[in-house]
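Q: Okay, next protein. This is Methylated-DNA-[protein]-cysteine S-methyltransferase from Nonomuraea thailandensis. I've checked the sequence twice, so it should be correct. Can you predict the 3D structure?
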Amino acid sequence: MIAAQLVPTPVGPLALLAREGVLVAAGFTADPTEMFVRLTPALQAEGLEVVDDLGLAAEATRAYFAGDLDALDAVPVSQPGSATRKRLHAALREVKAGTTVSYAELAERAGMPKTAARAAGSACAQNLIAPFVPCHRVLPSSGGYGGYYYGVPVKEWLIAHENGGIANSM
């Protein structure tokens, strides 16, 4: 069974979905089924149950939004993808709060040639576990914020929060 919990945040509810204590999806939505339908068919076959407390993932979420910017790093995550995508997602988790990288830099950190920036962009676009796999920390080298699955205002807010530009409101 996939367990889901909604955690309120300053930028809207964050749906957390976990299987046996490992986060398999997270996203800024009030409807956990929006994240559930993005899971693999095998995980969807397990069903979805909304619970009151997912434990570590929920605690880490509250701590992160209260100012402990490293809290999300302790939560185990698992998402599908090719070996390349998994390397890019692992490299994303190494980008520390308060810093940003370009898509080319992310590819380089994943041990891939700089020409793999497009693959880095694709890995960010397909990321199912935001902000635990912090694709919001990747910015285009041409400037600006680029896109974000949950909207650029959420990405801007997260980056400002991590840079100390927002008073804690949790």
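A: Here is a summary of the prediction. Strands lie at 2-7, 14-19, 22-27, 48-50, 101-102, 138-139. The CA atoms of residues 159 and 165 lie 8 Å apart.
Q: Noted. On to the next one.
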